[in-house]
Amino acid sequence: MSILAAIVFTLCSLCNCAKADTMNTEQKNTQLARQEKIVMIAAFTANGDLSRLKPALHEGLDSGLNVSEIREILIQLYAYTGFPRSLNGIQTFMDVVAERKNRGIHDPEGEMPAALPPGTDRDAYGEQVRMKLAGITTLPPKAGYQLFAPGIDTFLKEHLFADIFGRGVLDYTSREIATVSALAAMHGTGAQLQFHMQAAMNVGVTPEQMENILSVLKKRVGDKEAENAACIYRKVLEKRSLTK
Fold first, then answer.
1. What single-letter DSSP state applies at residue 104?
2. Are 207 and 180 in contact (CB under 8 A)?
3. 41, 73, 135, 220: least buried by Cβ within 10 Å?
4. Rounded average pLDDT over 109-132
5. Rounded to an integer, what distance in angstroms lies between the CA atom of residue 45 and that of residue 182?
6. Do the Cβ atoms of 111 and 169 come closer than 8 Å?
7. What confidence score (pLDDT) does residue 88 get?
8. How far apart are CA 97 and CA 215, in angstroms?
9. Are the C-beta atoms of residues 205 and 176 closer than 8 Å to each other?
10. For the residues of 136-192, what is the DSSP string, one character each?
11. Given a cut of 70, is residue 1 above it in pLDDT?
């Protein structure tokens, strides 16, 4: 009887392991699908290609992104692409949501953004977020633009990394995937793209996910953008290998 029980227990354990592996694979595929849509939404917002942004927004909602998440991507991108591109993306998204409602599709709204608690030291909060993205624990001396134009450094910390990143809705991983994709779709942003590729990996984007971002850029955005991003990614990998 004890032998039979052991066999049954073993079979049940194997079955549970198989179910767990299936669930993990499904979750992984769902996550990759959502990230692929973030790549396209961010890239087409950044380069102003509204004709391709509209179907990408539909795909994003169909993949499981909710209204609040996509709206947050478009809001954040103004810090990298400027108000005109961000507002054009938001207007396009408004049209998509209205169109889907008219077709009887009711997409989940998702959570509403939060605000930092009253009295928060936004400069300190933003500095901590930036350090997390940079993968450092010790604040280096100010240099470069921080000394030449201290105002922009304040805006980066207090507005981008505090007010915007502190809104919630999206985790840092999703925010950095959106940023990387937007910068990859623009010209002359190589230095910023390199920083944010590093930042994305510092907050949890895996090499597999980064390769997937590059693949989506190539298949859906453009060869030139993908090749440039791949070149910068190689530099990031080299730098990370040297610092290990």
1. T
2. no
3. 135
4. 94
5. 7
6. yes
7. 98
8. 28
9. yes
10. -SSPPPP-THHHH-HHHHHHIIIIIIIIIGGG-SS-HHHHHHHHHHHHHHSSS-HHH
11. no
The Cα–Cα gap between 74 and 80 comes to 10
Cα separation, 160 vs 156, whole angstroms: 5
Q: Name the token pair of 218.
A: 């190539």
- Please state, in angstroms and rounded to a whole number, the distance separating the CA atoms of residues 177 and 65: 14
Helix pair 67-76, 2-46: axis angle to 10 deg: 40
Give the integer Cα–Cα distance in Å for 216 and 222.
Answer: 9
- In this prediction, residue 33 has a pLDDT band, given cuts at 50, 70 and 90, of confident
Buried/exposed code over 152-171 (b: 16+ C-beta within 10 A; e: otherwise): ebeebbbebbbbbbbbebbe
Distance CA 218, CA 121 (A): 41
| Pair 13, 195: CB distance under 8 Å | no
| Polymer length in residues for the chain | 244
Band (pLDDT 50/70/90 cuts) for residue 13 is low
Dmax (CA) for the chain in angstroms is: 80
pLDDT at 239: 86
**Is the distance from CB of 182 to CB of 80 less than 8 angstroms?**
yes
Instruction: Find out whether 193 and 179 touch, Cβ atoms under 8 Å.
Output: no
Cα–Cα dist 55/110, whole Å: 21
